[in-house]
Write a structure and sequence with these properties.
The protein has 309 residues and is mostly helical. It has one domain. Helices cover 73% and strands 0% of the residues. Helix 2 packs antiparallel against helix 3, helix 2 packs antiparallel against helix 8 and helix 5 packs across helix 7. The relative contact order is 0.20. The N terminus and C terminus are likely disordered.
Length: 309
């Protein structure tokens, strides 16, 4: 009977995938929610300062219960993670999203798993298998079927610049996912997040302090404040925490493959609130996305003994 019980390793893998699903549920909602408050109530750079300040308070609170100080030899990696995972990542995403549309931004971000595979091959010397390559392709096709079902023509003169910013965000976050995984195997998740966001604040302050300082908080309506609270607690604190937790068990390639779920989740949320309807195209898209994630996370037998690879 014991043979039919899940092993601890299998349980850890399922928990990692549950964490990734949770993180991407949050990200899927964030595209539209952020556009509801930005730039009407707060500018994109001010939004970043708000997010990082809120994240430091939350991560710092939990870190203070069991403080852990990084080793000197790891400080450079922490700084690089702060640059790629907090500063460049968030600045480029919100500045880009402010200029382009959620649809076009999500199209560009489907390149993230491919960029992670390239970064992992260069930095971590990970091998790109045929299964992963096919999985990435299936996920890309599935996401494209869903995203391209509507008119994605943006209005504005700076759309190309916005799209470029979002692409830089994707490159930066891909490098971050590869770099941070080693830290996740050495320190507690809360420790890694706190010591990444701490220098991250110093990096984003020069870019966003002016926009943050002129926000008239007393004039922001309650629904917009709730959205801002979701962006701090959900999109920043919880999503980063869940992705970091998953990286302890699964590879950066698996984490990045979940980006294909974001457009599907965004559409599902739209259906739930009565702004869209389920159709065959969405079902096919979902099946391709899940197949892609499975292939990217599937390991050859010779690699299963390696931690998380």
């Amino acid at each position: 009977m014991m043979a039919f019980l899940p092993s601890p390793a299998m349980n850890s893998k399922w928990k990692a995938h549950a964490a990734l699903l949770g993180a991407n549920l949050i990200y899927g909602a964030n595209y539209s929610l952020a556009k509801e408050v930005m730039p009407q109530y707060i500018g994109p750079s001010g939004m970043i300062v708000m997010r990082v300040l809120g994240a430091i308070l939350l991560f710092g609170l939990f870190w203070s219960f069991k403080p852990e100080i990084p080793k000197k030899e790891d400080l450079l990696r922490f700084l690089l993670c702060a640059i790629t995972g907090v500063a460049v990542n968030q600045i480029m995403f919100f500045e880009g999203l402010n200029l382009t549309t959620p649809i076009q931004a999500s199209i560009i971000l489907t390149a993230n798993p491919i960029l992670v595979l390239i970064a992992a091959a260069i930095i971590a010397k990970e091998r790109i298998t045929w299964a992963k390559s096919i999985g990435i392709l299936l996920g890309l096709i599935g996401a494209a079927i869903l995203i391209l079902r509507r008119d994605n023509t943006a209005v504005g003169n700076n759309v190309m610049l916005g799209n470029f910013f979002v692409f830089i965000n994707a490159v930066s976050y891909s490098v971050y996912l590869v770099l941070v995984r080693k830290l996740m195997r050495t320190y507690r998740v809360i420790t890694v997040m706190y010591w990444i966001f701490l220098p991250g604040l110093l990096l984003v302050l020069p870019f966003g302090w002016q926009e943050f300082s002129i926000v008239e908080w007393t004039t922001i309506p309650a629904n917009a404040l709730l959205i801002l609270g979701f962006i701090i607690v959900g999109t920043t604190f919880l999503a980063y925490l869940l992705n970091a937790y998953a990286l302890v068990t699964v590879s950066a390639s698996v984490v990045s493959a979940y980006v294909y779920l974001q457009p599907f989740i965004a559409a599902a949320i739209a259906i739930a609130i009565g702004k869209d309807q389920l159709d065959v195209r969405m079902i096919v898209s979902a099946l391709l996305v899940f197949a892609g994630v499975y292939l990217v996370s599937k390991l050859p037998a010779s690699a299963r003994s390696e931690s998380g690879k």
